[in-house]
Write a structure and sequence with these properties.
- The strands form two sheets. Strands 3-2-1-4-5-6-9 form a seven-stranded parallel sheet, sandwiched between helices. Strands 7-8 form a two-stranded parallel sheet.
- Strand 5, helix 5 and strand 6 form a beta-alpha-beta unit.
- Helix 1 (15-26) crosses helix 8, helix 3 (68-78) runs parallel beside helix 4 (103-131) and helix 4 (103-131) packs parallel to helix 5.
- It has helices at 15-26, 38-49, 68-78, 103-131, 154-172, 191-194, 198-202, 212-224, 234-245, 248-255, and strands at residues 6-10, 30-35, 56-60, 85-88, 134-139, 177-182, 187-188, 210-211, 229-230.
- It has one domain: NAD(P)-binding Rossmann-like Domain (Rossmann fold, 3-Layer(aba) Sandwich).
- The protein has 261 residues and is of the alpha/beta class.
- It has ten helices and nine strands.
- It is globular, with a radius of gyration of 18 Å.
- The structure holds NADP nicotinamide-adenine-dinucleotide phosphate.
- Residues 10-17, 35-37, 40, 61-64, 89-92, 112, 139, 141, 184, 186-187, 189-191, 194 line the site of NADP nicotinamide-adenine-dinucleotide phosphate.
Length: 261
């Protein structure tokens, strides 16, 4: 029988996070699901427990709050759980451009997608290193390869996630821990509703979209086969390849055009 593990999934109340929960549950792993919308997490657990008997826990946590990850890890320890699989997935992008964001909005993005992600990687490593086994997926984006977007922190943050994940993989693969930067392209989730651009997103040709089950399957396969970077979908790989090779002037000019504005 396969040895089962415990997975911590952030942003599990919708989209890719919820799909990670479904796929990891189907492999028999225990789940710790985290987001702000506790009701959504509890509904998902109720759905999954009809099919799978293993332990599943929901923890409400606002990762934008300073100190949230320490409290989260204390809560997990108090439930006598240790994390073998970390899916750092929670993320979003605010509606306004950087120059019009409040300092609170700026801080929150950095807290959720940079600080919390980094702190959680650090917090789970002692247990993974001791067990000589661990899997970490940090959800970046195809925008890590694309031209920087106008007035957004999002591209820079996802480049951070992309680079940090590879550095961490180089550090810890010798002790049996694998880290993958998962870089999806446009994916059908609630992401664009949260940005309030759902109508504009619907006008983008379907060929450019992937679905969450495919992205999650590819990401999970990649981390288990030791691939430090995973860009799901042939077209996304082509876009990433071309984008990285464009002259900076062209990348800058393209960056000023955003189909979602
Ligand atoms: N969809 C795409 O086209 C796409 C493409 C590339 C990369 N991505 C990345 O994929 C990841 C997942 O996004 P998604 O597409 O699945 O979008 P989604 O359906 O909107 O899910 C985002 C998740 O993040 C959680 N979250 C947001 N702020 C949080 C906070 N302060 N504390 C805790 N959790 C928080 C949300 O939960 P609560 O609101 O309940 O807290 C939700 O579960 C993100 O990192 C995103 O950048 C998405």
């Amino acid at each position: 029988m396969t040895i089962q593990h415990t997975a911590l999934i952030t942003g599990a109340s919708s989209g890719l996070g919820a799909e990670f929960a479904r796929q990891l549950a189907s492999e028999g792993h225990q789940l710790v699901l985290v987001a702000r919308r506790l009701d959504r997490l509890e509904d998902l657990i109720a759905e999954l427990q009809q099919k799978y008997p293993q332990r599943m826990e929901a923890i409400r946590c606002d990762l934008a709050e300073v100190g949230a990850t320490a409290e989260l890890m204390d809560e997990i320890a108090s439930r006598e759980l240790s994390i073998d699989i970390l899916i750092n997935n929670a993320g979003y992008t605010p509606r306004d451009v950087f120059s019009q964001q409040t300092s609170h909005v700026v801080q929150a993005q950095l807290q959720v997608m940079v600080n919390a992600l980094t702190e959680l990687c650090h917090a789970v490593l002692p247990h993974m290193t001791e067990k000589q086994w661990g899997r970490i997926i940090n959800v970046s984006s195809i925008v890590a390869f694309a031209p920087p977007g106008r007035g957004t922190l999002y591209s820079a943050i996802k480049q951070y996630v992309f680079t940090f994940s590879q550095s961490l993989d180089m550090d810890v693969r010798r002790v049996g821990v694998r880290v993958t930067a998962l870089c999806p392209g446009l994916t059908h989730t609630e992401f664009h509703d949260a940005m309030d651009v759902a109508d504009k997103a619907k006008k983008i040709p379907e060929i450019l979209w992937t679905d969450a089950p495919f992205v999650v399957r590819e990401g999970w396969k990649a981390v288990n086969s030791g691939q430090p970077v995973c860009t799901p979908g042939i077209l996304n790989n082509v876009l990433a390849f071309v984008s990285k090779r464009l002259p900076e002037r062209v990348r800058y000019a393209l960056g000023t055009q955003n189909p979602l504005e």
